[in-house]
Amino acid sequence: MKILVATEKPFAKAAVDGIREIIEGAGYELALLEKYADKADLLAAVKDADGLIIRSDKVTAEVVAAAEKLKIVVRAGAGYDNVDLAACTAKGIVVMNTPGQNSNAVAELVVGMMVFMARNQFTPGTGSEISGKRLGIQAYGNVGRIVARYGKALGMKVCAFDPFVPADVFKADGVEVADSVEKLYASSDFLSLHIPATDQTRKSIGYKLLTSMPKGATLVNTARKEVIDEAGLMQALEERPDLKYITDIAADAQPQLAEKFGKRVFATAKKMGAETAEANVNAGLAAANQVVDFLKNGNRRFQVNK
Ligand code: 3PG
What we know:
Blueprint: E1 2-7, H1 13-25, E2 29-34, H2 39-46, E3 51-54, H3 61-66, E4 72-75, H4 85-90, E5 94-97, H5 103-118, E6 134-138, H6 142-153, E7 157-161, H7 167-173, E8 176-177, H8 181-186, E9 190-193, H9 207-211, E10 218-221, H10 230-239, E11 244-247, H11 254-261, E12 265-267, H12 277-297
Bound molecules: 3-phosphoglyceric acid (3PG).
3-phosphoglyceric acid (3PG) binds next to loops.
Protein name: 3-phosphoglycerate dehydrogenase
InterPro entries: D-isomer_2_OHA_DH_cat_dom, D-isomer_DH_NAD-bd, NAD(P)-bd_dom_sf
Keywords: Oxidoreductase
């Protein structure tokens, strides 16, 4: 059987070596498609693959249709909004993610981003400290939970909102809970987003929430650009010269945002939340193990299209 690793943004070498060891150790063939620029390359490579390991690579209905033997897709990472689940399900293809495996890397980036914005993007001038400030966490999953821990360690007052998480989880972590998303925004000097991009969350963060934030507040987005209502963000930044926005996933309107708001906004050049050797190894090896365990033993733990 052939397992294709298709990564437009490649894994670190140590991760690829580890994936190879697992796949070949199981008696399968490993095919590598890295840094591909053209969708046609993925369509050709997936044709005879039995298993597929990806990162943010788009597995569209077209890719699924081209895959004649595909049985499993594992997204090495958390968010699987890049996979057409309906197309996979219709063809009986199992889709999984690797929850938690790259969370620490993203959480560390959140800390770095808060400090970076509080210190004028590391340019001269008087900045501020994040210790003592209120940190709001929207969605308390694997990443949000680590961000809460790091925020507390830095002396921040941490509060979270997540209607899907039971109260005892917050209690165990010593984290305050906001009754509503509105209350969370209204009381956060820094707001870190950890919601996935779904039909419910797309464009859900906009003018109203942003303008309710306290003076000098910063929105930190290491989640997805799709959850932001960009027109609302633009208007909020225009009306509130104290607000700041930093993101790991450039907005479609990032050039206009940068031109209009200068140092109050920042976007990384390419999504780098999970770009650590450790996260690549954790997520890549987990993905390879999940592929093997599914093909050999039928283990469907972590399946997201049940
Ligand atoms: C994730 O959903 O796991 C992160 O956004 C990381 O995505 P990446 O593999 O494209 O870096």
